[in-house]
Amino acid sequence: MKLSELKTGQSGIIIKVSGHGGFRKRIIEMGFISGKRVEVLLNAPLRDPVKYKIMGYEVSLRHSEADLIEVLPDHEETHSEIQTETLHGLKCNDHAPLSDKMKEALKQKRHTINVALVGNPNCGKTSLFNFASGAHERVGNYSGVTVDAKYGWAEFEGYRFELVDLPGTYSLSAYSPEELYVRKQLVEKTPDVVINVIDASNLERNLYLTTQLIDMHLRMVCALNMFDETEQRGDHIDHQKLSELFGVPMVPTVFTTGRGVDQLFREIIATYEGQEDSQPNFRHVHINHGHELEHGIDEIQEHLKQEADLRQKYSTRYLAIKLLENDAEVEKIISRLPDAKEIIEHRNQAAARVKEETGNDSETAVMDAKYGFIHGALKEAEYSTGRQKDTYRTTHVIDAVLTNRYLGFPIFLLLLLLMFSATFTLGQYPMDWIEAGVEWLGNLISETLPDGPIKDMLIDGVVGGVGAVIVFLPQILILYFFISYMEDCGYMARAAFIMDKLMHKMGLHGKSFIPLIMGFGCNVPAIMSTRTIESRRSRLVTMLILPMMSCSARVPIYIMITGSFFALKYRSLVMLSLYLIGIIMAVVLSRLFTKTVAKGEDTPFVMELPPYRFPTWKAIGRHTWEKGKQYLKKMGGIILVASIIVWALGYFPIPDNPDMGKQERQEQSYIGKLGHTIEPLFKAQGFDWKLDMGLLAGVGAKEIVASTLGVLYSNNDSFSDDNDFNDEGGKYEILHRQITAEVARENGISYKEAEPIATLTAYCFLLFVLLYFPCVATIAAIKGETGSWRWALFAAGYTTALAWIVSAAVFQIGRLFI
Ligand code: GDP
Ligand code: MG
After folding, report:
1. What separation in Å is there between the alpha carbon of 229 and the centre of ligand 1?
2. I need a surface site. Which of 82, 279, 307, 357 has the fewest CB within 10 A?
3. 121 is in an annotated binding site
4. Which pLDDT band, with edges at 50, 70 and 90, does 92 fall under?
């Protein structure tokens, strides 16, 4: 009996709650748990909602919701008994003991599981049905549709399985009557558990239906049928792993012989009995459909969630995905809603974006995403087959190379090297132009404005500081272009895949790799993007190690220092070494953190491998620009302000003696005093006070390190005549010259002798910049995401300590050889 059929004053014991996972979870959270007694306080026909009393609380449900709750009514058992109780004013409540008869009836009802068989044609559904139900079957022709469904039952370990053998379908789209019929059955008949029969000899295609069933958020068990065939053929699949990744139990079966059927039934019972959240072999996964689609799904869901009737019947995520697939049936359902227009508008916007980005319609994009999920899961479950029958052949052939056990990693490194070399060499030309522009601007100000602090501020502060950073814009855009290209063409997912094994060794999983890659752009959005990581522990550790990723803000200082200290052919290598050291540090720290400060277990998940495609120029252009824009914004904000502050600290107080040399004057200034005060802190690294100030200023944002050095080392020629240095090394030669001269003076050696030491100092400086305190914004983001200052301060502290130790060690060891 349904709960909605109980009348006012009646009560019953809850047997089960049907419906999709989201609905069930909500209802169960309200207290409608099987075995509990519920009493109807007020049920007026045709009037919503109905008032119930459960576990001492009053709750309201809609009729349609109460339709999905099955109860065993108290009055059915023995009518007289209830009547006497009511007569004596003893209302039924939770504590009223169950009679033995009642217990027995409850158990019987409770132990009946409605099971629907779903799968592709010829995967073995009917074979299972016949094997399990033996003679107990009847054929039904269902409500107006000319599609057959067979009903039967089977008994196993005290449970009764009511089986329905549904027609075979490849998908759950609205194209064929069979598909619509199966969909309708699943939504309207609300089976307790779905058996998804999978032809394991054709895994990839069969799993497509599985991904759609996952979208529907049903309780499900998969039978990997025809397992005998796969074994004969020599296929390999780690079905345990596959099961973890899909969040669904998967049992190898052979329905012609009955192999695996017991195990399958046991899994069904476990799934049925389990409270979804606490059950280890069931986890509702969201198949990631890529940024644009997911954005569309979110927006559509936002509207659908307002619709109580709809929301209780369907998973809103499923409806949103179906809408994006232009599903006519779902469109019909949506068209009845008050905000149908807005919903369709969101759908169209998302579809247009997808079209623009991929050149595909959203229907294809959804399909690609699902195959990407399957492909990734199969790859991770080490699937291999003797026979190749393949819709995404090109992708698989390319993947065979790019994710190859031996080739994948070298190719990845080679691509990184290529990316950085191109960034340097191609970036050189526009960089020269911008530089000429900055110089021209400086000269213009110098000629037109009268002498005074304003002029000095503009030239040395604004143009010197911002100019030192803005010249890197082309290089940053080129870098972002490569990253965007790799993301959009599908390679980034492979890079993540290649790294997955390594990530597991780090105690993380591949999903953490995406934020880490994003960290190369900017740590702040990368920290936000860790939200997609399911396990809290992995998420925390990912955030903690993210500062090790060289964000774009560090690029100007890398380029500045490598450009002035290293010959052209070594520059890419030096850069690469920094990136790699960051990565290695991240590995080591992650291992350390997962064993100490953030212990816990791991959640499996799928790394999607979407098909390769040529990204559209428009999409790449936009993604590159979106990233570059943030860089420019920062330039006008914090960097401008910081440059002026650094300049002012270096300019004031105005000395009494106007003929004082620039170098001397700087030393007398506030910044000089501050710099000299903290100088002893960095003795072990051989940094001079200007470098120290750069580091101090960089706490605000790492670009400020470059702009500060730009200000501090601007136009000082007091050393340039003291040596035989020939000026061919480019624009940051001044940095090179001054640092080297400083080292020479400090150690009382010649300029020539000082050069290797200065180079070592410069490299240690780079190491320090790589490792130390990321920036205020990153620390704030960690605070925001972890919700505690503790982790934010921990990140700030450990990075700085690490930077100090590593750079000091490298310098001291290096000095032994120089
Ligand atoms: P349905 O279309 O999903 O109902 O599939 P059927 O149950 O009608 O099975 C299709 C064919 O596959 C039949 O010839 C079955 O005998 C065969 N079959 C079913 N299960 C297995 C299995 O596990 N191994 C093998 N080798 N054949 C199977
Ligand atoms: Mg059949």
Report:
1. 11
2. 279
3. yes
4. very low
Contact 770, 554 (CB under 8 A): yes
**C-alpha separations of 178 from 147, 165, 471 in Å:** 7, 12, 62
Contacts 24+ apart (CB under 8 A), 750-759: 751/722, 751/723, 751/724, 751/725, 752/723, 756/818, 757/686, 757/815, 757/818, 758/565, 759/565, 759/566
User: How far is the C-alpha of 297 from the C-alpha of 324, rounded, in Å?
Assistant: 8
* C-alpha dihedral sign at 198, 202, 206, 211: positive
Distance CA 192, CA 780 (A): 46
Q: Is 228 in the pocket of ligand 1 (CB under 6 A)?
A: yes
Question: For residue 177, is the peptide bond before it cis, meaning its omega torsion is within 30 degrees of 0?
Answer: no
Mean pLDDT over 560-584 rounds to 89
Query: What tokens does 521 get?
Result: 């752009």
**Residue 713 has which token pair?**
């080392």
Both tokens of 252, joined, read 């190898």
- Lowest mean per-residue pLDDT among 333-347, 489-503, 718-732: 718-732
- Distance, in Å, from the CA atom of 746 to the CA atom of 754, rounded to the nearest integer, reads 10
User: In this structure, which residue's CA is closest to atom 18 in ligand 1?
Assistant: 124
C-beta of 256 in contact with ligand 1 (< 6 A)? yes
CATH number for the domain running over 111-278? 3.40.50.300
133 is known to lie in a ligand binding site: yes
User: Annotation-wise, does 787 bind a ligand?
Assistant: no
Helix (H, G, I), strand (E, B) or coil at 358: helix
Helix axes 789-817, 536-545, angle to 10 degrees: 40
Rounded to the nearest angstrom, the distance between the alpha carbon of 135 and the centre of ligand 1 is 18
In three-state secondary structure terms, 383 is coil
**Is the CB–ligand 1 distance for residue 255 below 6 Å?**
yes
User: Nearest residue CA, atom 9 of ligand 1?
Assistant: 124
d(CA 584, CA 807): 15
Cα-Cα-Cα-Cα torsion 645, 647, 652, 655, nearest 10 degrees, comes to 180
What string of H, E and C letters represents the secondary structure of 1-67? CEHHHCCCCCEEEEEEECCCHHHHHHHHHCCCCCCCEEEEEECCCCCCCEEEEECCEEEEECHHHHC
pLDDT at 137: 55
- Which amino acid makes up residue 169? T
Scanning the structure block, which residue is given the tokens 């920036």?
775
pLDDT of residue 357: 82
d(CA 647, CA 558): 22
Q: How far is the CA of 110 from the centre of ligand 2 (A)?
A: 29
Tokens representing residue 316 in the block: 């809103």
Query: Does 38 appear as a known binding residue?
Result: no
How far is residue 330 CA from its own chain's centroid?
A: 29
CA-nearest residue for atom 25, ligand 1, is: 226
Closest CA to 98 of 27, 5, 11: 11
pLDDT of 584-615, one tens digit each?
A: 999 899 999 988 888 776 666 676 777 787 87
Q: Which of 2.60.200.30, 2.30.30.90, 3.40.1160.10, 3.50.50.60 would CATH assign to domain 3-105?
A: 2.30.30.90
- Read off the pLDDT of residues 149-167 as tens digits, 9 standing for 90 and up: 788 889 999 999 999 998 8
| Helical pair 689-697 and 640-651, crossing angle rounded to 10 deg | 140
Q: Report residue 661's pLDDT band, with 50, 70 and 90 as the boundaries.
A: low
Angle at 581 between CA 547 and CA 630, to 5 degrees: 40
Write phi, then psi, for 274 (nearest 5 degrees). Answer: -70, 145
User: Is the shortest distance between the CB of 178 and ligand 1 below 6 Å?
Assistant: no
Contact 264, 251 (CB under 8 A): yes
Give the ligand whose atoms come closest to the C-alpha of residue 128: 1
Higher pLDDT, 364 or 636: 364
Structure tokens that stand for 517 in this block = 């890659």
Cα–Cα dist 452/653, whole Å: 14
The Å distance, Cα 262 to ligand 2 centre, comes to 21
- Under 8 Å between Cβ of 613 and 490: yes
